[in-house]
Amino acid sequence: MAVTIRLARGGSKKRPFYRIVAADSRMARDGRYIEKLGTYNPLLAKDNEERVKMDAERVAYWLGTGAKPTDRVSRFLEAAGVIAKKERANLKKGEPGKKAQDRAEEKAAKVAAAEEAAAAAAAAPAEEPAAEE
């Protein structure tokens, strides 16, 4: 049986509330689970202690038995210090679009040209003003 540590959604429409659960990966998202490990309330402020609560001891037990956390749950576990932080690849949808990339290239070219002009002006010898008698 493949066990995952994941979120099971509760709450009403547009008022989400999640339970952090250990569940068989074949069960439905909100269906039967083996054990409730904690809660996550995304409506609370990010610095609120009640936003993510979990039993770290039981989570460590399930990780020791081979349970795989989902990406979101693994982020919670990293923040709590239960597991080591891992490197994540930036997904393609995190990259700017074609037009934004073109604008960035044009801006970089303008900045480079302005820096070249400033360097050339600084390197040119300054003319001494004629001394008046």
TrEMBL record:
GO terms for biological process: translation. Transmembrane segments: none annotated. It comes from the Bacteria. Residues 90-109 have a biased composition (Basic and acidic residues). The keyword Ribonucleoprotein applies. GO terms for cellular component: cytoplasm; small ribosomal subunit. NCBIfam families: S16. This is Small ribosomal subunit protein bS16. The lineage of its organism: Bacteria, Pseudomonadati, Pseudomonadota, Alphaproteobacteria, Rhodobacterales. The gene is rpsP.
